[in-house]
Amino acid sequence: MLPPEVVAKVRRFYTYQAASSFAIWIPFWTLWIRGNLGSDFEFTLVDVAFWIGLLVFQLPVGVIADRTGRKRTILLSEVFRSAGILGYGLATTFAGFVVANVVWSLGAAFSIGTSSYLYETLLATKHESEFPRYIGRNTMIQLLANAAGAFAGGLVVQALRDLRLTLFAGAALNLVAVLVALTFVEPAVARTTEPTYTEQLRQGLRVVRRREGVALLIGLEVFLGVTLYMMALYRPLYLRFLGLSDAQVALSIAGFLVVAAVWSAFAGGISRVLGEFGTIALLVALASAAFFGIYGAGVFSGAVLFQVPIYVVWSLQPALTTAYLNRRLEPGQRATVLSMGAFAYTLALVILEPVAGLLTTSTGLLSLGLFLGVVTIVPCAYILARWRMTVAPWPAMTPLPSRLVGGGRVSRFHRLLERISRLRP
Is residue 152 part of a domain? Predict the structure, then answer.
């Protein structure tokens, strides 16, 4: 059981996430932007501006987050995010949307310390092993707040027939998250950072290069996360393509978010039963099957149900990937390495999103499912194979002592290494 003071901190963090996630603009921001632009390709270029901004800010902000603390970075994240949402509502041109996206990208970069705040709050009382359970509950709260916000946004649009109002209201409502974050207390965890920003970044890179599990989890975050995001970006357009009205789009997204929230509540249990490899394999299988299903179903109203497994993976993947990464990182390098993963994810989006825009502009929306399915299954199959070879070999084998190996001569140096390996750390 957590101490009462830690329970209060965790509940305050949940309250903050609920306030930040009550976004009534979620079903409509893409429709608003696309309605003011000329093509899907131009629409993806606007979104790429966000990710290019994130590429510029991500690594410096990750280093700053480790050196200045979690509370300050969370506050900066929410302030810039509110400004970005407001900018979306004010903009009506390509240039205006690009500027708003760059501002929003700075807020997204600072959000890298959010999960670290929860992890280190638990770490301070030696309950960090329970992080998957608490991050799963946190994701459930976020998704339920998303669902409530989407439903409320649908009511607003149905009554007032103005997509832009959801962005103005969303920017104002997000300030509640800022007020809640002001009450946070910095986790009492010692962070040993490097003497300079450059050395901090170099040490983070060294961690990624030398720890196979960290590198593979970042790869999973990139290839699975990118395809899930692109589906989220196109989802309102795809649902409208299937014949749903704006109100039905909002209601559908709210319903899917509730389903995803229910699954995310069991994130810790799923991870405990299936283990890291089994959980990762399940996420890859569900996502790739759903993407190929979208392509195979064509213009069939029942194809909307393929969004359910995508939402489930979308809710579980960030929480569990973050949990698996956090347990492999030290406090002084945590945000730095997480920012490197986000940098790689962003770089992949900057490359692949315009490709998706060109593809759907020239061939139609249905080809998106095939494209996302291929981008998911091919690299993720390699990641799973490497995981079994290096991180968690299967079947598990105990090496034979060199004295029992028949034939051939074993060097003294090899025997010395063998003896050292038996020593307890």
Answer: yes
The DSSP secondary-structure symbol of 390 reads I
Could you tell me which of 169, 138, 411 has the C-alpha nearest to residue 265? Answer: 138
Specify if 345 maps to a domain: yes
Residue where the block lists tokens 């995010």: 81
Phi, psi of 227 (to 5 degrees): -65, -35
How far apart are the C-alpha atoms of 115 and 85, rounded to whole Å?
22
- The residue segments making up the domain with residue 158 are 4-391
Specify whether the CB–CB gap between 209 and 344 falls below 8 A: no
Residue 384 near residue 281 (C-beta atoms within 8 A): yes
Is residue 408, in this structure, part of any structural domain at all?
A: no
Per-residue pLDDT, 412: 52
Contact (CB, 8 A) for 151 and 250: yes
Total domains in the chain come to 1
Q: How far apart, in whole angstroms, are the C-alpha atoms of residue 293 and residue 369?
A: 7
Query: 45 by DSSP, 3-state: which?
Result: helix
Q: Which of 210-217's residues contact partners 24+ apart within 8 Å by CB, and which partners?
A: 211/328, 212/386, 212/390, 212/391, 213/324, 213/328, 213/387, 213/391, 214/325, 214/328, 214/329, 214/337, 216/383, 216/386, 216/387, 216/390, 216/391, 217/321, 217/324, 217/325, 217/328, 217/341
The Cα-based distances of 108 to 72, 75, 105, 313, 367 in angstroms read 14, 11, 5, 21, 29
The reply to whether the predicted model has a pTM over 0.85 is no
Cβ neighbourhood burial of 129 (10 Å; 0-12, 13-18, 19+)? exposed
Is the Cβ–Cβ distance between 292 and 373 less than 8 Å? yes
Which range is least confidently modeled, 84-88, 204-208, 419-423?
A: 419-423
- Here the tokens at position 290 are 């759903």
39 Cβ neighbours under 8 A, 6+ residues apart = 357, 361
Nearest to 214 by CA among 386, 73, 51: 386
The 3-class secondary structure across 325-343, one letter per residue, is HHCCCCCCCHHHHHHHHHH
Q: Which of 397, 30, 11 is nearest to 232 (CA)?
A: 30
The C-alpha atoms of residue 380 and residue 288 are separated, in whole angstroms, by 10
- 212 versus 264: the higher-pLDDT residue is 264
Query: Which CATH number fits the domain that encloses residue 90?
Result: 1.20.1250.20
Please indicate, yes or no, if residue 404 is contained in any of the structural domains: no
Q: What is the pLDDT of residues 312-366, one digit of tens each?
A: 998 888 888 888 888 888 777 777 787 788 888 888 888 888 888 888 888 888 8
